[in-house]
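worker-3 :: picked Binding-protein-dependent transport systems inner membrane component
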Amino acid sequence: MKSHLRFTLQLGFTLLVCLFMIVPVAMSVMAGLTENYFVGLESGLTLRWVDEVWQLYADTIWLSIKLALACLLITILIGVPAAYGLLRSRRRWANAIEELLLLPVAVPGLATALALLLAYGSYREFRGSWLFILVGHVLFTLPFMVRAVLSVMQTAKLPQLEEAAASLGASFRQRFSGWSSLTV
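worker-3 :: tokens ->
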């Protein structure tokens, strides 16, 4: 009986939290799609407000998408080989490098931003470009990529799979690029 009561209370709390998060979003969507927000749906539906927001922020939205894709590409190009190297290395320094890679997550974002400004603030062209924002994004997201890829490589027993592939004649390049297509 206690477990049923506990489940009911947990479910009720979860639903309240969901409502707390969903209601403001629903009200914002409603405000953007109605002629007059205060009248409600009776005033009619329109995309006028959405169009106005798009005209104001389209460049910013596209820049954000480009920035996200560039950040993803860079973190993949750096994070996957870094995770692979950390997995393959059995040396003491591998743990130190892994901890250094996690440092941007431990340090507050404001401190990282100030450090970037102090380090590159004198380069006005760089500081004023979107590349400066990209560097900050990569610094923050790279640890998440490395940890996720490292975890997948560890659970996939990559060293044993590589040893088996090498015994069958696969080169390093074939082993590195083909491990993700294996079906175990």
